[in-house]
Amino acid sequence: MLKIKLLKNFSWPLKIATQEIEITRLYPEKMMELPAAERGIHELDATTCIGCSSCARVCPNNCIEMVHFKFGSPLKNKKMQFPQIDFGRCMFCGLCVDECPVECLKMGKKVIMAGWERKDIIKGPEFLATKRFSAKEVTDLEAEGKRIAAEKAAAKKAADAKKAAEAKNASKEGAADANGAAKKKAAATEAKPKEGGAA
Amino acid sequence: MTIASEVLSSIQSAFPGAVLDSRVESDRRLWATIDSNKILDVCKHLSSKHNFDHYSGSAGVDWIARKEMEVVEIMASHGAHQVVAMLKIKTPRENPSVKSLTGLYWNANWYEREIWEMFGINFEGHPELYPLLLSDELMGAWPWRKDYKGYPDLTTGERAVEITTPDGYTQYRIPPTPAEVEAGTVVLERPKYPSFREREELEIKSDSEMIMHLGPQHAMVPGPFLLDILVEGERVKKAFLDVGYIHKGIEKIMENRTWLQGITYTDRMCYVASLSNNECYCGAVEKILGLEVPQRAQYIRVILEELSRIQSHLIGTGEFLTLVAGVGYAPWQYMIMDREKIISLIESVTGARLTHTFVRFGGVRNDLPEGFAEQCKKVLPYMKSRTEEFIELFAQDPIYSLRMENIGSIPAETAKRMGCAGRVLRAAGVAYDMRKEDPILVYPELDFKVVTGTRGDSADRIDVTLREILESIHIIEQCLDRIPSGPIKTEAKIPKKVPAGEAYYRVEDPRGEMGMYVISDGGDKPYRVKVRGPFYATFQTLTPLLEGVYIADAVAIAGSMDGCPSEADR
């Protein structure tokens, strides 16, 4: 009886050996097929990003920092601030993707990010942006932005032709205010990662 | 069936004036503030008159604004009724001290030790008030108090001073700098207690006894914990357990993160059960917010949690076989191969293989992808046939049964008294499953039975685990047939600030009963999150179980509990 049982047990590995098995050991030669929902390395659509830094605020590990990047849309993202992600700290939770109001940040199927040094895995918009404008398009957009601004100013001037002097003063004040607010915001984003590091 | 209001009126009539404040949340939840002098009598009354034989844990809360501390005792019953009584005891913040329940409930030991080391609340009458999770360096800092100033910077070794102890060992100490003393980040006065090594050496009575170390790094353990066994010949005389090697302080971290960010940290408690942990935290917050989860989202949650249970059981069993068989990774491979199919299913929905961060307040992150049901219908019958094969394989193998049967067996009464959870409890024959006891989501509508064993030994635990996989497959099949279409997230807007309140929510983790006690003070961060982990409860019973067994069986017993020290330490 015992012998039969033991023999039966030996039949099992033989059965397994004939099966074709797919596991990750095929890895360097053949990548596993990843599902559409895979949460891999982020993909940034720099043409639509508005630089609101919602992603940086919601990140539990404070791994997102807003940095300057040239090839975005100056119309939508006036300060040209785009997310830079420290993949050494990122845990791929996807909260930043859920939080993005314009859906410009997505997580793709790319998962390889090895580097020789720690700073190699801090990936800026240069690396993340899958969609971006060329330098010429950016200058065109900037020119268009200037044109729109000029048009607006002209329209304003035409409308407020009578109170031109007052309007000028008001716009100067407004501009000064906006500058002040921008500085404060920049300071806050700079301070954030430091806090995270300490915690 | 006893309901919460009956329990409350019974306490009030038996001890007039003992209940200072009370709230009956539902038929299953009772919140009561008990006079700290009468807590022992109330607990005795509850356990003798109302079958509250399950001490489910306790939580400390530091109410710094009210200048008091609270200990919340969580009491439940092993199936006699479904009431969970949350009994609060208040104590002043200066010299906090409450009565210990270790005399009534054996398993109160660890919970009270944890509160003592984290909050500095003294427990009168506790037999061994030694640190459990914290290192000796941090004792006296009381890190989970709200006015804790933070760790001193010990990251550089340059400050370390070499000291030679009287025994001839070399020790390194890092003396505090004056700046740190001023900032209050270093501990100047530590409570006095014998160290772990001293406590061990006290037990050595004769020359024939010696102490063997299993761990913190050992092939037996799935995570780091130190198991020292005092042996005489081949017999274990006494076992000592030291945990806290991967204490991450997740409960404290979550107090410093927003409500939404907290979900990501629950994943990291135990990565093979991260969906259950997500569910537990989100469920508790949903309870405070009063959110309704759409039907489809509920079904998706159930499907994924059951899939997650299957893969957790497979990895647990595979790991266990590796430990006991001692033949390298051959048995592990079979389980991992099957688990890969389940993981791929989960990944196709959540996008991550282990740490899913999938459950959200009032819904789930993604909808099921197209063709998920077909994929499931391919994988599940295969899993079923494989699991049946595994069960048969274990049942017929003579070597396995010689090695496992009647090893580390716990009778049902002992298992209840020791407060074991999950498979250890169910293998002993106690049908205690949160999906039946405290039903959440759509579990009440589903047909499944609680798998129990008879002997409560190591073989039974594995058998129960494997048969639970079959039940899970049955549940998923029902869900796939019934899942309605509709939204996957609630339409209600989820506020950034959660209104003040508290909730205790229980789910059935792959390892047993898991509960989270969440308190909100109306801010954008949780005021306190207490995790009542299932393995923490089971882990405690390891030391008494090991007394009197052979050394080789220690591995079989510890392995069959499907341990996850990461979740026990948090």
Structure notes:
The complex is a heterodimer of chains A (199) and B (570). With 199 residues, chain A is of the alpha+beta class. Chain A has a single domain (34-194), classed as Alpha-Beta Plaits, CATH 3.30.70.20. Helices cover 45% and strands 12% of the residues of chain A. Chain A has a 3-stranded mixed β-sheet. Chain A has a 3-stranded antiparallel β-sheet with strand order 2-3-5. Chain A is rod-shaped, with a radius of gyration of 27 Å. The termini of chain A are far apart. With 570 residues, chain B is α+β, with helices and mostly antiparallel strands. Chain B has 3 domains: 4-136, 2-Layer Sandwich (Beta Polymerase, domain 2), CATH 3.30.460; 150-242, no CATH class; 250-569, Cytochrome-c3 Hydrogenase, chain B. In chain B, strand 3 and strand 4 (68-76) form a beta hairpin. In chain B, helix 9 packs antiparallel against helix 16 (458-482). Chains A and B meet through helix 1 of A and helix 7, helix 10 and helix 11 of B.
